[in-house]
Design goal:
The protein has 189 residues and is an alpha+beta fold. The chain has helices at residues 2-26, 44-55, 80-93, 130-138, 162-177; strands at 34-36, 39-43, 59-61, 69-72, 77-79, 96-100, 105-109, 119-124, 146-150, 155-160. 14% of the residues are buried. Mean pLDDT is 79; it is low at 16-31.
């Protein structure tokens, strides 16, 4: 009878032990709350999704706006909080920012910086075509200056940073000074 009990107990105990070992085997020994955060020339949307999976953060974005490739090379493993900060920094370099809402973190394009001051000069022309002059000046103007011809009055609208617009106006004055005598009667810009 003792032998029969021993046989029954091993028959019941063996599957239980085997089940227990299988459950333990499904949980990796190396499981931790850190992950390697290395992406080389990866799709930006894929990186956002992977960081979201690791951190448990809901990232929201418009696939039409959030596009491009990104490289993140981190030599060590990072925590969830560090992964979010790393992603935010990498997104900033790509021209995106994170906005917190109730639904999650929105990935949106950064707003361009607004210049401190903008001036607009109207320059009427008498002896030259506004469109032609605008085409010529556009090639030599400083960055941030916009030149638009206004055909009904044959004028130029020049807008931008005050210093840069002043440079363009100085060029226009010099060209007027070098003009033939019959063209100097025109109103000065």
């Amino acid at each position: 009878m003792l032998r029969h009990c021993f046989f029954c107990s091993t028959r019941v105990a063996s599957p239980l032990l085997l089940s227990w070992w299988l459950v333990l085997a499904l949980t990796p020994v190396w499981a931790s709350d850190e992950v390697a955060c290395t992406f080389e020339n990866a799709d930006l949307q894929t990186v956002i999704k992977k960081v979201g999976e690791f951190t448990g953060t809901t990232f929201l974005f418009d696939p039409a706006q959030v596009q491009g490739k990104i490289t993140i090379l981190c030599p060590r493993t990072v925590s969830a909080a560090e992964a979010r900060k790393l992603l935010a920094s990498a997104l900033a370099l790509q021209g995106y920012t994170l906005r917190k809402t109730e639904a999650g973190l929105w990935v949106v394009p950064q707003r361009p910086a607004v210049p401190a001051a903008t001036v607009i000069e109207v320059v009427p022309l008498q002896y030259a075509n506004a469109q032609e002059v605008a085409d010529i000046l556009t090639g030599i103007t400083p960055p941030g200056v916009r030149i638009a011809p206004y055909s009904p009055t044959n004028s130029l609208l020049i807008s931008g940073d005050p210093h840069a617009v002043a440079q363009v106006m100085a060029v226009l004055r010099r060209t007027k000074e070098d003009a033939p005598a019959h063209e100097q009667d025109a109103p000065s810009p």
